[in-house]
Specification:
With about 150 residues, the protein is mainly alpha-helical. The chain is about 60% helix and about 5% strand. The chain has a two-stranded antiparallel sheet. Helix 6 runs antiparallel to helix 7 (about 130-145). It is globular and about 55 Å long.
């Protein structure tokens, strides 16, 4: 099975198998510190002193609890489009080290997401190749029906 897909920039990207580290370490840490990452987007929009104080406060809040793969917060965020993009990014990083998470969110579109998601499910052991091939064959039909 081919584990590549065409991004929104028309380049071909190659997915690789997710590791246990991706699922048990990287995903929970990303979820745990996501509020801090989001807060960083306010830099320049708040006075520097206020930003620093609030940034430290948010970081301390994120650090108070440790999440793991079975934490409800991890499951909830992993089930979102953003969570899927994070797992896609983890899968792409081995073959495309230059890609940032933000870039991956731009490469994956509603048009190519079903294909990418099915292939990622095979690579993570959630779906067998036979079922995946049937689902992939159905994608063009789904796209025609929705237009």
């Amino acid at each position: 099975m081919d584990f590549s897909f065409k991004g929104s920039d028309n380049r071909v990207y190659h997915l690789s198998e997710l590791t246990m580290g991706d699922l048990t370490d990287a995903l929970p840490l990303w979820v745990q510190f996501r509020p801090f990452e989001r807060f960083q987007q306010l830099k320049g929009k708040l006075p520097p002193e206020q930003f620093d104080v609030e940034s430290n406060r948010v970081l301390m809040e994120c650090s108070k609890k440790t999440l793991n793969f079975n934490s409800p917060e991890v499951s909830e965020l992993a089930a979102t489009m953003e969570g899927s993009c994070f797992l896609i990014w983890q899968s792409l990083k081995r073959n495309h080290k230059e890609l940032s998470f933000e870039q991956v969110k731009e490469l994956v579109t509603p048009t190519n997401f079903p294909e990418v998601n099915i292939k990622l499910q095979v690579l993570s052991g959630q779906l067998d190749e036979g079922t995946a091939k049937k689902k992939l064959e159905a994608i063009p039909n789904l796209m025609k029906e929705s237009s």
